[in-house]
């Protein structure tokens, strides 16, 4: 009797408290979440892929998994990232949300490592400042030496105000040079490929949570996680499982 109780306890630990009450195992859920966030597939495509593996799950359930676990995944990955360098490349791209175009602020460093992102309804100095504050608050970032941007006129006044208020290093230099921003513009294409199968988002909150997952798995696949290779899928799966305190 004692052995049966111990086995039940171990199973509960393996499943993890984050998956308590779910109809499917943590392994299945995390597999689906990782694949959706890594590859340009629709929820219905992933439903068929899971059926092929003997798992009968509706695409609406997969959607709920993404909304529940994508932002949590991004939050848990952050402390494990290698430090980014001080050369920031900042740009915005367009994302359709509920039939409207929104602005996705994104920044990478000169090596292409993701720094941060912010979805915003506006494209102005206030939005730029919100983005910079969010980026500076991440554990793998530090005050930049240079901030390379495009010709968006909102950036210089935003940086000047943040320098004046002591939020940015006063010697940080803003460079408005489009050709130097090719690295972040190329990185936008990955996000666009992932968004395309879903034909846009049905709401701001849905978009923000899904995009957090896209960015999180991009950091993993870029090799930004300490000790995890960008092409080592097994190590990545094990790392994600450990983040949620379950056995891989």
TrEMBL record:
Annotated organism of origin: uncultured Acetobacteraceae bacterium
Keywords carried by this UniProt record: DNA recombination, DNA-binding, Transposition
Superkingdom, natural source: Bacteria
GO molecular function annotations of the record: DNA binding
Integrase catalytic domain boundaries: 75-196
Biological process according to GO: DNA integration; DNA recombination; transposition
Protein name (database record): Mobile element protein
PROSITE patterns: INTEGRASE
Pfam family, one: DDE_Tnp_IS240
């Amino acid at each position: 009797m004692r052995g049966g109780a111990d086995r039940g306890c171990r199973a509960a630990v393996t499943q993890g408290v984050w998956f308590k009450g779910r109809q499917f195992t943590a392994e299945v859920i995390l597999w689906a979440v990782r694949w959706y966030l890594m590859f340009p597939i629709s929820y219905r495509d992933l439903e068929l892929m899971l059926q092929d593996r003997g798992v009968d799950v509706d695409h609406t359930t997969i959607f709920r998994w993404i909304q529940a676990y994508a932002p949590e995944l991004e939050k848990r990955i952050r402390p494990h990232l290698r430090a980014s360098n001080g050369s920031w490349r900042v740009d915005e791209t367009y994302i359709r949300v509920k039939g409207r175009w929104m602005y996705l602020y994104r920044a990478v460093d000169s090596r292409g490592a993701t720094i941060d992102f912010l979805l915003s309804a506006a494209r102005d100095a206030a939005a730029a400042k919100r983005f910079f504050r969010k980026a500076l608050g991440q554990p793998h970032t530090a005050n930049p030496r240079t901030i390379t941007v495009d010709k968006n006129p909102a950036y210089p006044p935003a940086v000047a105000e943040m320098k004046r208020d002591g939020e940015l290093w006063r010697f940080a230099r803003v460079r408005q040079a489009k050709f130097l921003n090719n690295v972040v513009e190329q990185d936008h294409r990955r996000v666009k490929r992932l968004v395309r199968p879903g034909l846009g988002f049905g709401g701001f909150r849905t978009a923000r949570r899904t995009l957090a997952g896209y960015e999180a798995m991009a950091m993993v696949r870029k090799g930004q996680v300490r000790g995890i290779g960008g092409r080592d899928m097994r190590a990545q799966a094990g790392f994600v499982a450990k983040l949620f305190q379950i056995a891989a």
